[in-house]
Design a protein that fits this description.
The structure holds two protein chains of two kinds. Chain A is built from one helix and two strands, in the order βαβ. Chain A is α+β, with helices and mostly antiparallel strands. Chain A has one domain. Chain B is globular, with a radius of gyration of 23 Å. In chain B, the strands form seven sheets. Chain B has a five-stranded parallel beta sheet. Chain B has nine helices and 23 strands. By secondary structure, chain B is of the alpha/beta class. At the A-B interface, β1, α1 and β2 of A face β1, β2, β5 and α5 of B.
Chain lengths: 45, 383
């Protein structure tokens, strides 16, 4: 089986979630992981 | 189910671009782990700047950047019922928080280094903001240089000392700007621009292969000055994020840049701007002239018509609109978007004066305030 390509995103406020969503739409096979240091995501968008 | 693995309370502490992996601390378990990547997007944002003066670590001194900060401020007000609040700074956050603190019945003191609030805007706009603040009971204190906070034995600031005087306080908000979070990127060898934020190209690529950057930690290309600047705004972050995401997934997107538009509310006032201000435009070598007009938001006979002020900043020779700023009680924040388009498209003020804007008495005068301002500005063009 082909190994899935991994996209890692550092930051989960505005740019991070936008990037994650877009990447997943462009390539649904991508394995996307988003790290956020705080308790919430998408708090500043 | 979007199948995106979201890990909150995880802090990334290192980027190893050679091995293509990052070091992550799980904050709830205090565990450190390495994660490998094929593509990486740095969207580490920005953090509030804090003054480093005696007492600035007091526990009733707050900054406001994210939801947790907001919750902390709200909880503190609920528990301690502060009577006197000092806000340091004169930007959007400071001004928006003036209203928030007044709504919680706090006596609010706004301390600025400059002579007017929103000191990055044109003087005429800032003067209207000052009037609105004063009408709403905000004490505005110009030309104050912070010196120290005096603390009680609980570690709470009880007074704020400046170059001019000492003011008793129960709570402090520092709203003096943000710093891009670039430390781990810099350590990994990702190039920073002259602003101190991460340098990217229009595809949001950094200098390192397979590493992209987007949002408040990165620079943005200003379409008017043709310069890379740091404009930490949520709408720009979203656009850059989409481009970074698309490209990291194998696409070919570009974000050509921004003209620098924003709007905010100060009590009943709407404030909005786009493009460059007079001083900034001069700094970039434009031969700048400007036109300011006061107009009504609707036809005068309509009930509830409100004043608004429009300032157009343009190139004296070509008439090209370089920027615009507006303030008023109605129809300002949305109206600026027409001018954002004009700045984006490098339109001249005489072209703008001929635009066909929608008109009906409840929405504007037969000649929209923008058209009146552009018409007046066009008379000043020296060709």
């Amino acid at each position: 089986m082909l190994k899935k390509e991994k996209l890692v995103i550092i930051g989960g406020s505005a740019a991070g979630p936008s990037a994650a969503a877009r990447a997943k739409r462009v390539n649904p096979d991508l394995e996307v992981t988003m790290f956020e240091q705080g308790r919430f995501v998408s708090y500043g968008s | 189910m979007q199948d995106i693995d979201v890990k909150t309370e995880h802090r990334v502490t290192k980027i190893d671009s050679k091995e293509k992996r990052i070091e992550v601390v799980n904050l709830s378990k205090s565990e450190t782990q390495w994660f490998s990547y094929d593509k990486l997007i740095v969207a580490t944002g920005a953090r509030s700047r804090r003054l480093n003066i005696p007492g600035s670590n007091a526990k009733n001194i707050f900054t406001l950047k994210d939801l947790d900060d907001g919750i902390r401020i709200k909880n503190y007000i609920d528990e301690k019922r502060p009577k006197r609040v000092a806000i340091l700074g004169g930007g959007f956050i400071a001004l928006e928080m003036c209203e928030a603190f007044r709504l919680r019945n706090c006596e609010t003191f706004l301390f600025c280094r400059r002579d007017l609030p929103a000191g990055n805007l044109e003087r005429e706009i800032s003067e209207k903001i000052l009037k609105e603040l004063e009408e709403n009971g905000i004490h505005f204190l110009a030309h104050h240089e912070p010196a120290a906070f005096k603390m009680n034995s609980n570690g709470e600031a009880i007074s704020f000392e400046t170059n001019k005087a000492e003011y008793p306080v129960d709570m402090v908000l520092m709203a003096i700007g943000v710093i891009p979070n670039v430390e781990i990127a810099k350590e990994a060898g990702i190039e920073l621009g002259k602003t101190g934020a991460i340098r990217t190209d229009t595809a949001q690529r950094t200098n390192l292969t397979d590493i992209y950057s987007a949002g408040d930690c990165s620079e943005v290309f200003n379409l008017v000055s043709q310069d890379w600047v740091h404009t930490p705004l949520g709408d720009i972050a979203n656009k850059q994020g989409r481009v970074a995401g698309e490209n990291a997934a194998g696409g070919k997107a570009t974000f050509s840049g921004a003209v620098g538009s924003a709007a905010f509310k100060v009590f009943e006032l709407e404030v909005a701007f786009t493009g460059l201000g007079t001083q900034t435009a001069r700094g970039y070598g434009f031969d700048v002239d400007s036109q300011i007009i006061e107009a009504e938001s609707k036809v005068g006979y309509m009930p509830g018509s409100k004043w608004m002020l429009i300032k157009l900043i343009f190139d004296r020779r070509s008439g090209r609109l370089l920027g615009a700023q507006m303030v008023g009680k109605e129809g300002v924040a949305r109206r600026i978007n027409a001018l954002a388009v004009a700045v984006h498209q490098k339109m001249s003020v005489d072209e703008i004066a001929r635009l066909d804007f929608a008109y009906a008495p409840p929405f504007s005068a037969p000649l929209d305030p923008i058209l009146i301002a552009a018409e007046q500005a066009a008379k000043k063009i020296v060709r």
